[in-house]
UniProtKB/TrEMBL annotation:
InterPro entries: Elong-fact-P_C (IPR015365), NA-bd_OB-fold (IPR012340), Rib_uL2_dom2 (IPR014722), Transl_elong_fac_P/YeiP (IPR020599), Transl_elong_KOW-like (IPR013185), Transl_elong_P/YeiP_cen (IPR001059), Transl_elong_P/YeiP_CS (IPR013852), Transl_elongation_fac_P (IPR011768). This is Elongation factor P. It is found in: Cytoplasm. The lineage of its organism: Bacteria, Bacillati, Actinomycetota, Actinomycetes, Micrococcales. The gene is efp. Residues 67-121 form the Translation elongation factor P/YeiP central domain. It comes from the Bacteria. It comes from Terrabacter carboxydivorans. Pathway: Protein biosynthesis; polypeptide chain elongation. Keywords: Cytoplasm, Elongation factor, Protein biosynthesis. CDD domains: S1_EF-P_repeat_1 (cd04470), S1_EF-P_repeat_2 (cd05794).
Length: 187
């Protein structure tokens, strides 16, 4: 338990059985009436952001969220198996928890896995990853008048749009937040 006077950005609160991360907070002392704390909270599981106001000094339940760098090993049915790089403990994370990160996750790649009391909450990848294009149609001569793009399939099976000049086998940098093409990688 903590008081609303002790809130800090990034702190995780347990409100009515749901985990909420404090995005920002502000202590307000109006001229009339009691002081209060205005907060912006983000749901840890869904990402939904809400504004919530607490009376100053109110007790709130805090939760400990453990974020560790883990290595993705393999997919086992609908679970993704991660290994803690320090203890070598393995953790099964369900498909729903991994979410869109699965589109950019390769075996032996590191990711940040957040857990609460041993229960996986979410998987966070680096801002960008390098992946190989496994299939894309050849760009036709004369298609370049608008600097167009074409669909390409990555080695993870995800589809992104890439410039027309890229070919199958090219390694590209991809933004893991929105799946956008960031550039070609020359190894």
């Amino acid at each position: 338990m903590a008081s609303t006077n002790d809130l800090k950005n990034g702190m995780v609160l347990n409100i009515e059985g749901q985990l909420w991360s404090v995005v920002e907070f502000q202590h307000v002392k109006p001229g009339k009436g009691p002081a209060f704390v205005r907060t912006k909270l983000k749901a840890v599981l869904s990402g939904k952001v809400v504004d919530k106001t607490f009376n100053a000094g109110t007790k709130v339940e805090t939760s400990n969220v453990d974020k560790r760098t883990m290595q993705y090993l393999y997919k086992d049915g609908t679970d993704f198996v991660f290994m803690d790089t320090d203890t070598y403990d393995q953790l099964n994370v369900s498909e729903t928890v991994v979410g869109d990160a699965a589109n950019y996750l390769l075996e032996n790649q590191n990711a940040l896995v957040a857990t609460n009391e041993g229960l996986p909450l979410y998987v966070e990848l680096p801002a960008s990853v390098v992946l190989e294009i496994t299939h894309t149609e050849p760009g036709l001569q004369g298609d370049r008048s608008t600097g167009g793009t074409k669909p390409a399939t990555l080695e993870t099976g995800a589809q992104i749009n890439v410039p027309l000049f890229l070919e199958t086998g090219t390694r590209v940098k991809v933004d893991t937040r929105d799946g956008s093409y960031l550039g070609r990688v020359n190894d």
